[in-house]
Automatic annotation (TrEMBL):
It comes from Corchorus olitorius. Its EC number is 1.14.14.147. The lineage of its organism: Eukaryota, Viridiplantae, Streptophyta, Embryophyta, Tracheophyta. This is 22alpha-hydroxysteroid 23-monooxygenase. Pathway: Hormone biosynthesis; Steroid biosynthesis; Plant hormone biosynthesis; brassinosteroid biosynthesis. GO terms for cellular component: endoplasmic reticulum membrane.
Length: 449
């Protein structure tokens, strides 16, 4: 028994230790070599089946017949609440996913949000001119938080935004912590911050509901709050979504969007700094677009940004190497056989994306940053071997918005500044971060505007 306990602890320690090296996938690689692409282990207090096989991952993600439910650590479950889209299942998840996905993917939203993203990017990049040292990981968060709050609830710069920034930061500090809940503990403080956030967001939702009664229902919804409120107003058969439910879900939707996009931007800067050839080609492509737009005195549209092929390849390669969400955790509701591997009822499965992204079988020289590989693969593919945004029933609804934000950021960065990066390294546990927040020194190009 003692030997077994020791074995279990060693697995978790090995798993965590690999997250502090430049090869976080070494934990998976070692076991895959010994036991095959799907193996059992015991990490972070849970017996778990790890899949490093893209075909098995696909079945887990598709989740036909609702065999799998999300399985997050206890602290995350507590903070999300059972009615969060990230945790719920069945018809309500599908309904919410379709509503939010439809809104975030719509060309109308992208048309409207492009200038908001540009403004947020220009505001932040503009402030860099007077800064000695810029910490990219912090600065990019300023851009994406403003955009997120705008998309979800149309809140612009001001007191509400500052309040939400402050409280949200306090809230997410508890996502990965000891699940102990009494005054003074991290989890308790985070739950309190969530209560304050819910109160403020509920006020915004109520005001919007009143305002909506006066507006034209045929026009496009202006944000996620309105999308959910309108759905409540619609059909007679469908039950309305309660205001508390809407407010809670708006906050919970901030979680997957808040850290991921700034980390992708930060890591793009890091990888480009280490790859002068790629940076040069990216700059040329974006300078050409800037020149065209300046010559024609034209504003940029979202399609301009997304149609730059090399820029899209840089983004795909960044997402492949960064593995911001390194995999998803699910729990099986019944016994299921996938490709000859039995996953027993009640067991957790980790569909490991990072193992697939860093596998030589799928990508030649997987550790090298090579945006050109996507010229053959196709930039935006989300096939079994490339799943930074997940797949199937829960495919990230923020996929296109994220790519647009990163494209706009990269465009204005490489056409406005040159930069020198200071020494820093990537840490992969518990989530992907730069050890020193990626410090850089910038020099403005004279044609900055
Ligand atoms: C680079 C940026 C991003 C990455 C890598 C990313 C990744 C992911 C992944 C892997 C999932 C699937 C989780 C699962 O299957 O359990 C997911 C789900 C989700 N993402 Fe993203 N995401 C990003 C940006 C965003 C943004 C900007 C938003 C919001 C505006 C967003 C909203 C969501 C939501 C609401 C879900 C849950 C969908 C559902 O369960 O039905 N994400 N994301």
């Amino acid at each position: 028994m003692a030997k077994f306990k020791l074995e279990i602890q060693r697995e978790t320690l090995d798993f965590i230790a690999s997250g502090y090296t430049s090869r976080p996938v070494s934990f998976m690689d070692k076991r895959r070599f010994l036991y095959g692409k799907v193996f059992k282990t015991h990490i972070l207090g849970t017996p778990i089946i790890v899949s490093t096989d893209p075909d098995v991952n696909k079945v887990v993600l598709q989740n036909h017949g609702n065999v799998f439910i999300p399985a997050y650590p206890k602290s995350i479950r507590e903070l999300l609440g059972e009615h969060s889209i990230l945790q719920m299942n069945g018809n309500l998840q599908k309904r919410l996913h379709a509503l939010i996905g439809g809104f975030l993917r719509s060309p109308q939203l992208k048309t409207r949000i492009t200038s908001d993203i540009e403004n947020a990017v220009k505001r932040t990049l503009g402030s860099w001119q007077h800064m000695q040292l810029i910490h990219v990981q912090e600065e990019t968060k300023k851009i994406t938080f403003d955009v997120l709050v705008k998309v979800l609830m149309s809140v612009g710069p001001g007191e509400d935004l500052n309040f939400m920034k402050r409280e949200f930061e306090e809230f997410i500090k508890g996502l990965i912590c000891l699940p102990i809940k009494f005054p003074g503990t991290r989890l308790y403080k985070s739950l309190k911050a969530k209560e304050r956030l819910v109160k403020r967001v509920k006020k915004i939702v109520e005001e919007r509901k009143l305002g909506m009664e006066k507006t034209d229902e045929k026009s496009m919804a202006s944000d996620a709050v309105e999308v959910l409120l309108r759905d409540s107003e619609e059909g007679n058969e469908k039950q309305s979504l309660p205001l508390d439910f809407i407010s809670g879900n708006i906050i919970e939707m901030m979680i997957p969007g808040e850290e991921t996009v700034p980390m992708a931007m930060t890591l793009a800067v890091k990888f480009l700094s280490d790859s002068p050839g790629a940076l040069h080609q990216l700059m040329e492509e974006n300078m050409e677009l800037k020149k065209q737009k300046t010559d024609l005195c034209e504003d940029y549209s979202w399609t301009d940004y997304l149609s730059l092929p090399f820029t899209q390849n840089v983004i795909s390669e960044t997402l492949r190497l960064a593995n911001i969400i390194n995999g998803v955790w699910r729990k099986a509701l019944k016994d299921i056989d996938i490709k000859g591997h039995l996953i027993p009822k009640g067991w957790c499965v980790l569909a490991s994306f990072i193992s697939v992204h860093m596998d030589e079988e799928n990508y030649e020289n997987p550790y090298s940053f090579n945006p050109w590989r996507w010229e053959k693969l196709g930039a935006c593919v989300n096939n079994n071997n490339f799943t930074p945004f997940g797949g199937g029933q829960r495919l990230c609804p923020g996929l296109e918005l994220s790519r647009l934000e990163i494209s706009i950021f990269l465009h204005h960065l490489v056409t406005s500044y040159r930069w020198v990066t200071q020494e820093d390294e990537i840490i992969y546990f518990p989530t992907v971060k730069m050890k020193r927040k990626l410090p850089i020194k910038v020099t403005p190009l004279c044609n900055y505007r």
